[in-house]
Structure to design on (272 residues):
């Protein structure tokens, strides 16, 4: 009994040391700030530009989905959307070119996320010839799923309990596929599963907590800093979200490379 306990303590210490080492190598805070900056400067403008070309029903779906994720008041999202749609600037010929530029610029977020995944798995940087189409595909899938968040949270009419299960399943599958895609298939599916489960679960939990916190935070920041206050709050939310993502991916890699997970996957592989 004492020998087993000692072995368990030793394995726990080894796993903890390995996880701490991975965190030091990845620098989660720095990575989260970089991803949040790319999302704020490139991905969110792309979202609003795409919404400017979409039908009115899609505009409403975008507003509803962002509100369900962030808990941001509808009027704030509507004001941001009108800044793109009412001016008509993005709907003329130069605006069409602007959409293309916004799409290409938004790949900076894909590239930053790819770099995080590669650092987690100690992989060399993949070449642009192999990765370029993956950056675009990831952005398109991200946009589609982002627009679908409100129906997902409602379970497509089946209720919030079903919605929670569907959101969790979709989020885990998204992060599982994201790692495989951005790592260019260099890591197998089974090793990527722990990171997908941790990251997907964390992101869904954040999306359910945010509506309880964000409205008051937005109101308080607006009262203290004026129109710039909500911007600071949104940036803080993005940093928090990417901290959850980076942490999940890093801990997932540590779990996936552990001896016990190797034995577990070997069992499933033999049964399959």
């Amino acid at each position: 009994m004492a020998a087993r306990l000692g072995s368990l303590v030793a394995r726990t210490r080894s796993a903890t040391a390995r996880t701490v080492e991975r965190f030091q190598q990845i620098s989660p805070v720095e990575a989260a700030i970089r991803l949040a900056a790319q999302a704020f400067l490139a991905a969110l403008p792309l979202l609003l530009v795409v919404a400017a070309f979409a039908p009115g029903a899609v505009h409403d779906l975008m507003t509803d989905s962002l509100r369900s994720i962030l808990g941001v008041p509808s009027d704030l999202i509507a004001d941001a959307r009108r800044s793109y749609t009412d001016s008509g600037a993005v709907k003329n010929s130069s605006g069409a070119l602007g959409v293309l530029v916004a799409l290409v610029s938004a790949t900076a977020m894909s590239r930053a996320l790819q770099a995080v995944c590669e650092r987690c798995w100690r992989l060399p940087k993949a070449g642009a010839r192999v990765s370029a189409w993956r950056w675009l595909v990831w952005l398109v899938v991200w946009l589609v799923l982002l627009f679908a968040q409100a129906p997902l949270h409602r379970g497509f009419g089946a209720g919030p309990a079903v919605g929670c299960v569907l959101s969790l399943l979709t989020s885990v599958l998204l992060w599982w596929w994201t790692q495989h895609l951005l790592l260019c298939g260099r890591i197998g599916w089974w090793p990527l599963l722990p990171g997908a489960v941790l990251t997907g679960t964390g992101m869904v939990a954040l999306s359910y907590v945010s509506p309880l916190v964000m409205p008051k935070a937005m109101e308080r920041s607006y009262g203290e800093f004026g129109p710039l206050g909500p911007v600071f709050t949104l940036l803080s939310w993005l940093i928090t979200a990417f901290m959850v993502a980076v942490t999940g991916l890093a801990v997932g890699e540590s779990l996936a490379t552990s001896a016990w997970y190797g034995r577990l996957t070997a069992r499933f592989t033999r049964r399959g």
